[in-house]
Amino acid sequence: MSILRVAIVLVLCAIPAAELPALQRVPERCDQYQAAGQADPNNVDAAVRLGQCIVRDESLIALGGDSTQLVFRTSWSVALRALRHAVELDPAQSRAYRPLFRILLAEERDGCDYVTGMCEFGSSVVRNADSVITIPRRVPTSGAEPYADIIRESRANQRASVIEARDLAERWAKAAPNDRRPHEYRGRALMALSEYDSASTELELAAALGTPESRSALFWDRFEALVKSDRGVDARRLLDEAANDPARDTTRLRSSTIASLNALLGRYRPAPPPPVDSARQRQFRARLDSIIRNSPPPRPGFSTLLSAGDSAGARRALAEIDSAIAPSAGRFSSMDGPQHLTSAKYHLALRDTTGAESQLAEVERILQHRPLQYSFGLTFSDARPWMGHAWSLAGDVAAARGRRDEAARMYRRVIGLWSGGDADVEPVVQHARVSLESLSRRR
Predict the structure, then answer these.
(1) The pTM is what?
(2) 257-296 b/e with 16+ CB inside 10 Å = b?
(3) Domain count of the fold of the chain
(4) Mean pLDDT to the nearest integer, 308-329
(5) Whole-angstrom distance, CA of residue 152 vs CA of residue 133
(6) Domain range for residue 31?
């Protein structure tokens, strides 16, 4: 939702200010549906409409007339109870489930102050017993991930809601066995619980029950579940299907992203180069050659300094590398992952295992990002397979430090995701197999 909101803000920025008020329509009030439900507790339609209305309501109001104390006009706790009641009365009531899962799986709630016309508010979604607490705050307008703190707070308090979503989806699937939607929601709930094998099973069933359009829309969920359950063969099959789909949505799955995902799975499939204007290309090349000719000679790099026995100089060079690739707000680079791997190797060359583990942890963050679709270090990464080398190295480091379970997990990931990849990644897979067998013999 936060990505969508950013896109909407960018569109609105292009609209003249005089036209904005016409676009800011205050959502309808929900009182009529609440009154109808109170008048007839068995009125399923009123319960559903109340839940739908509240979930759509982003309105903020000033508490006690104080514009510095904004609160949501409606409560998600009321919506949650109404929608639960609806599906208790009618387990096959499909209209109730979408807003119900929206609440249970939400990581943020957006808010708008329609008095001032400001829609720059967001809230974490915190479950407290049977209540859903949403307290709005201003969202930073700068930085790469303005919703990061909100999402972090929500995830820390999300487990009870996700478990409820999983169980409700299972109940819905029993009431509607040929409907793909309960399997989609159950798969997403299982993903949030890190139960990736079970999530993949549900999502593949949802794909089988769906249409070509719904399968396309489900690509990223299915791909993430397969990757995080180390099912490289199935992930490659799914990626190939999506890449060859003539109706592929290139805004969600670009050619460069396909190349990066192939690299994740141990295949080098570079994206086709963009069309080139030869005259402009020659001009650019001429300027680049001029810059290179007039540039001072490069300073000796880490490997050169270490080979020459200058360990102090090598350490200074490595410190510069680490500073350049350190995580920071608003900074993205497609080479971050490979550079972290290179840095880890350099740290090990200096016998600095702690420093190496720190850099390998940055590589791991790329794969553990949720959702995987927005992991910049993955979707805009190098088209050459590199991540399996990082997993293998992380396994070796963990094994050397006696963390056998962690080492085994890394080796299994290499085997699961890179087996069946290109021939030149096979030595990495073979190293992982031998290392895993060695760990098993030592137990």
Answers:
(1) 0.86
(2) bbbbbbbbbbbebeeeeeeeeeeeeeeeeeeeeeeeeeee
(3) 1
(4) 89
(5) 15
(6) 2-157
